[in-house]
Write a structure and sequence with these properties.
The protein is an all-alpha fold and 115 residues long. It contains 4 helices and no strands. It is 37% helix and 0% strand. The chain is globular, with a radius of gyration of 14 Å.
């Protein structure tokens, strides 16, 4: 699974919001979690625990996506060939568009399983 190195992260760190207060996951770990989701077409709940709590990652993703941060970050990462995600495959809400409906990403709250 592709992950950014610290040197690669430094190329886009200026595009990310400054962290303030107590953040459980730093921007480096957070961005690698998002890359995992995009590259693997995983659902939020399928995010491996090593990346952090899926819901916390999703909430920050949702905020940043609404602010257009990912468009800038992924454009820069693609310029250097560091990710394989096509920006044209994602709309403003973060939902994957096109023929792969099973790899849908969404910035809306995932629904809970019924018991």
């Amino acid at each position: 699974m592709p992950q950014l190195t610290q040197a690669e992260f430094e190329k886009v760190s200026h595009l990310l919001p400054k962290q303030t207060g107590h953040c459980r996951y730093d921007n480096f770990a957070f961005l690698n979690a998002i890359i995992y989701i995009f590259e693997n077409g995983a659902k939020w709940r399928q995010l491996p625990p090593s990346y952090g709590n899926w819901n916390s990652i999703w909430r920050r993703f949702s905020r940043w996506n609404k602010e257009g941060i990912f468009e800038k970050v992924f454009r820069e990462l693609q310029k250097d060939g560091l990710v394989n995600v096509k920006l044209s495959d994602f709309n403003k809400t973060g939902s994957k568009t096109g023929s792969k409906a099973s790899t849908k990403l969404s910035s809306r709250t995932p629904t809970r399983k019924k018991r």
